C-alpha cells in the first residue's frame, strides 16, 4: 500500500502517564507512517503532559482545562484531527498496544471497500495475549442491548475473516473523514465508556455505510483499575446509557424485547450478585439507571459535536 494516505491518530488521556507513553511508542512504531498524533489530556494531575513533551517531538498536545469526560474528550481530539488534511482518523485508547502492522491492515480494508465507514481491530487481553476481548459486536436488543463477539474466548481463528458487524469497539477504530463529517462525532450524552461507539456505529450504518471488522489488525488492551465491574456506578451508567441508545435507535418491537429481558433479568442478577459478591449494589445501580434513563431527555441533534453549516 502506498504511504500517501494521511492518517491522524487521536488518543485521549486522563492520569495514565505510563500507559500513554507506551501507547504513543507503539503508535510511532507502526510500519505505516503517521503524520499527526494528537493527544487530548483531560486535565491530568500525574505529569502526563510533561512526560509526553519530554519523551516525544511532533506530538500535538491538547491540554484541557478540566476533565470533559470520555465522549467530549474524544470529540475535542476529533475536531482537531478534522482541522488537518487527514483522510482518516485512527482513534486509539491510551491503554492499547497496537501491532506494528495494525494500521496497514485497517487501511487495506477501508480502501478496498468503498462502502466501509469504519474499520475495527481485533482486541486481545494484554496480560493473556491469546485471549480475545473483542471481535466486533452484535445488537440483539436483550438486556444489555448488544453482545460482544469473542468476549474472553481463546483465539482459535473463529473470527479470522473480514466481515461486517453491527458495532465496533471504539478503542482502536479507523474512521473515514467523510463519515465524521456526515454523521457527526460521539454523542456526549452517553456518560462513562459505554454505548458511544455502538451509537456511532449505528449512525454510520443508517447513513448507508458499513462497519467492518478486520481480524488481522491486532491490538492488546492493558488491564487497569477503573469502575468495578459489578459496582453501583458502572451498572447505573451502563443501564442509563442503554436506555438512551434505545430511545435513539429502537422501534416498538425492539423496545418490547429489551424491556422483557431487563425486567426478567433483575431477579437473576440479584441472585447472582448475592452469591458471587455478597452485595446488591450493582442491581440497585442498574435499576436506577434504567428508571432514570426512561425519563431523561434525549436530544435529536443529527450531527452531535460538529458545527452546523
Explain what you see.
The radius of gyration is 19 Å and the shape is globular. The two termini are 35 Å apart. The protein is built from nine helices and twelve strands. It has helices spanning 17-28, 48-55, 69-82, 102-112, 177-183, 196-206, 232-249, 252-277, 281-295, and strands at residues 7-13, 36-41, 59-63, 88-93, 96-98, 116-125, 128-134, 137-139, 146-148, 163-164, 172-176, 210-221. Helix 7 packs parallel to helix 9 (281-295). The longest helix is centred in the C-terminal third of the chain and has 26 residues, at 252-277. The protein is an alpha/beta fold. Strands 1, 2, 3, 4, 5, 6, 7, 10, 11 and 12 form a ten-stranded mixed sheet that branches. A two-stranded antiparallel sheet has the order 8-9.
Radius of gyration: 19 Å
List SSEs in N-to-C order: EHEHEHEEHEEEEEEHHEHHH
* Biggest pleated sheet: 10 strands, mixed
Tally of DSSP helical segments: 9
- Alpha carbon gap, first and last residue: 35 Å
Describe the structure concisely:
39% of the residues lie in helices and 22% in strands. It has helices spanning 17-28, 48-55, 69-82, 102-112, 177-183, 196-206, 232-249, 252-277, 281-295; strands spanning 7-13, 36-41, 59-63, 88-93, 96-98, 116-125, 128-134, 137-139, 146-148, 163-164, 172-176, 210-221.
Amino acid at each position: 500500500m502506498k504511504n500517501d494516505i494521511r492518517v491522524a491518530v487521536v488518543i485521549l488521556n486522563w492520569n495514565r502517564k505510563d500507559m500513554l507513553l507506551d501507547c504513543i511508542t507503539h503508535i510511532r512504531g507502526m510500519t505505516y507512517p503517521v503524520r499527526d498524533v494528537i493527544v487530548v489530556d483531560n486535565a491530568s494531575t500525574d505529569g502526563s503532559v510533561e512526560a509526553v513533551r519530554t519523551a516525544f517531538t511532533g506530538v500535538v498536545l491538547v491540554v484541557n482545562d478540566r476533565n470533559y469526560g470520555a465522549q467530549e474528550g474524544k470529540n475535542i481530539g476529533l475536531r482537531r484531527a478534522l482541522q488537518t488534511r487527514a483522510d482518516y482518523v485512527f482513534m486509539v485508547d491510551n491503554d492499547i498496544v497496537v501491532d506494528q502492522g495494525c494500521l496497514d491492515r485497517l487501511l487495506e480494508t477501508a480502501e478496498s471497500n468503498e462502502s466501509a465507514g469504519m474499520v475495527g481491530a481485533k482486541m486481545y487481553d494484554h496480560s493473556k495475549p491469546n485471549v480475545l476481548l473483542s471481535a466486533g459486536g452484535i445488537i440483539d436488543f436483550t438486556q444489555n442491548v448488544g453482545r460482544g463477539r469473542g468476549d474472553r474466548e481463546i483465539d482459535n481463528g473463529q473470527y479470522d475473516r473480514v466481515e461486517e458487524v453491527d458495532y465496533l469497539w471504539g478503542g482502536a477504530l479507523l474512521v473515514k473523514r467523510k463519515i465524521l463529517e456526515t454523521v457527526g462525532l460521539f454523542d456526549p450524552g452517553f456518560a462513562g465508556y459505554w454505548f458511544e461507539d455502538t451509537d456511532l456505529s449505528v449512525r454510520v450504518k443508517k447513513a448507508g455505510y458499513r462497519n467492518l471488522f478486520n481480524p488481522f489488525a491486532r491490538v492488546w488492551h492493558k488491564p487497569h483499575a477503573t469502575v468495578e465491574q459489578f459496582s453501583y456506578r458502572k451498572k447505573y451508567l451502563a443501564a442509563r446509557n442503554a436506555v438512551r441508545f434505545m430511545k435513539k435507535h429502537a422501534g416498538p418491537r425492539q423496545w418490547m424485547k429489551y424491556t422483557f429481558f431487563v425486567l426478567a433479568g433483575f431477579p437473576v442478577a440479584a441472585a447472582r450478585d448475592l452469591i458471587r459478591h455478597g452485595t446488591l449494589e450493582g442491581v440497585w445501580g442498574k435499576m436506577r439507571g434504567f428508571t432514570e434513563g426512561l425519563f431523561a431527555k434525549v436530544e435529536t441533534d443529527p450531527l452531535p459535536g460538529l458545527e452546523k453549516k
